[in-house]
Amino acid sequence: MCITVVGSINTDIVALTDDYPLRGETIFGKKIEFLPGGKGGNQATAVAKLGEKVNIIGSVGQDLYGDNVINTLKKNNVTTKFIKRSNEFATGTAIITIDQTAENTMLVLKGANDDLLPADIENAFFKLQESKVLLVQMEVPQETVIRAMQIAKEKGMYIILDPAPAEGITMKALEYADVITPNRQETKHMIGIEVNDIESALHAARTFEKMGVKNSIIKMAEKGSLVYQSGQWEYVKAIPVKPVDTVGAGDAFAGALACGIATGKDLVSAVEYATIVGALKVTKLGAQTGIPTLDEVNKFCEEKNISQTKLEKSR
Fold first, then answer.
1. Is 295 annotated as a binding residue?
2. In the prediction, which pLDDT does 1 show?
3. Is 285 within the bounds of a domain?
4. What is the pLDDT of residues 146-183, one digit of tens each?
5. Is 77 among the annotated ligand-binding positions?
6. Is residue 312 part of a domain?
7. Is residue 258 a part of any domain in this protein?
8. pTM for this one?
9. Looking at the domain assignment, is residue 84 inside a domain?
10. What does the pLDDT average to over 246-251?
11. Is 133 annotated as a binding residue?
12. According to the annotation, is 278 in a ligand binding site?
């Protein structure tokens, strides 16, 4: 059983500070880290750390940063043979600032991610062995994402669209997705609905349904998630934790959701699992280094007395 992730691979330059500088202002920060990142890389790492087989299709530069991120993915048991080495662009970079509340701002330089082309997707899928779930986001070219979803649909794969970041969203991708997972910002960007409670999340889900998306997970951060399936809905509460770094929390959630679907969980149970993994992620620094392993998830559930069946690797 395998999951395929199509998406971005970056180096994250993370600066920790008590407060954000005002425009034109210079302040002193606390710490800087150079960490592996990118939504595709983060989500593939989450899948691998949670014990499932995963391929990543992405693009990095012919540079040291590209070498480093590939080596890190390999160490985390992600299959990297479908990563393209671009001759034209440097490895993508995200410049991230995290303040004392653990909230973040990002400036993403896409670099080699823009060199992941539909032809690269076709070549990779031709060589791919059986894969049950496709997980995509919007940090690589839109036509590349669409082509991946089209081929996955032809192969009968379950397609999860994480429509992030908001700036990269293409509404055309909605027609190929089996489920979408927008957060509050992405929901507002796509359909103009401000989500702040269950009622507004339900309104957003029903609006997506009118657009042809029968299944959606409306994420509301500390307010939990609304899971909508063909007219039926359930609310999944957030798990309170002390946040350290929210970067990559949505990616950890997406990777865990893909694992849940691939191993036969129903959508609500998969979201409950993803909620646990996402909560654990924000307690640690680093979009990939902070993602918990399967053993850490099980231990957390036992310590917090969370009603979650002990999980086992499917392989």
1. no
2. 62
3. yes
4. 999 999 999 999 999 999 988 888 888 999 999 999 99
5. no
6. no
7. yes
8. 0.92
9. yes
10. 90
11. no
12. no
- How many domains would you assign to the chain? 1
For the chain, what's the residue count? Answer: 315
Over residues 24-75, the pLDDT tens digits come to: 999 999 999 899 999 999 999 999 999 999 999 999 999 999 999 999 999 9
Q: Catalytic residue numbers?
A: 251
Which residue from 82, 135, 136, 87 is spatially nearest to 115, judged by alpha carbons? 87
> Which range marks the domain in which residue 158 is found?
2-21+31-304
pLDDT at 267: 97
Is 311 a residue whose pLDDT tops 90?
A: no
Confidence of residue 308 (pLDDT cuts 50, 70, 90): low
What is the per-residue DSSP string for the chain?
A: -EEEEE---EEEEEEE-SSPPPTT-----SEEEEEEE-HHHHHHHHHHHTT-EEEEEEEEESSHHHHHHHHHHHHTT-B-TTEEEESSSPPEEEEEEE-TTS-EEEEEE-GGGGG--HHHHHHHHHH-----EEEE-SSS-HHHHHHHHHHHHHTT-EEEE---SGGG--GGGGGG-SEE---HHHHHHHH-----SHHHHHHHHHHHHHTT--EEEEE-GGG-EEEEETTEEEEE-------S--TTHHHHHHHHHHHHHHTT--HHHHHHHHHHHHHHHTTSSSTTTTPPPHHHHHHHHHHHT---PPP----
Domain of residue 145, CATH code: 3.40.1190.20
Q: Write phi, then psi, for 308 (nearest 5 degrees).
A: -145, 120
pLDDT at 310: 47
For residue 69 the two structure tokens come to 């991120």
Residue labelled with tokens 């191993």: 263
Answer whether residue 273 shows pLDDT above 90: yes
